[in-house]
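Bumping with the actual sequence this time:
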Amino acid sequence: MSPVYLLLLLIPVISAQTFHWGPCPTPEVQSNFTLQPYLGEWYEIAKLPAYFAIGECIQANYSMREDGTVRVLNSQVNGTRWFVEGTAKVMDPKEPAKLGVQFTSFLPYSPYWVVSTDYTSYTVVYSCTDIFKRFHFNFAWIFSRSPTLPTVIVDYAKKLLIEEGIDISKMTHTDQRCRV
């Protein structure tokens, strides 16, 4: 398949992403990350555009499975609340803040890097899909343990991403005021 044809096929996906030339940035991640206190409910506060997260009241719930992987249950409201289940795992025990997440068994794990968290109020997550090291799609999220997060923490999270070379100019706020 020619690269031009491939790019044409990807236009619908690209339009809902944050596209950049060159390889993915490699931000520093949370030092001494521990998975157990990270588990539980997280509310999306802000994100870079993602084709799979276009609703409101987006939440993620992480719980440990018996096999040592993490059950990921994401939900969002788009008329009604709908759910998608996936699996996350630590890809390298030497770097436990660099997880991989998978929502279908026929695709490889995608990066889910915890850039920063205090475990009790906020987390900053980064992911990037690299296409032949020619271009990449950034994903970044700011999550909270509650539907709101103080502006000072949101600003701190955004500053962290910028300092790591991640363009957040297209970052949007997620409405968490749903009644569904």
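The tokens above came from a reply further down the thread. The chain is about 15% helix and 40% strand.
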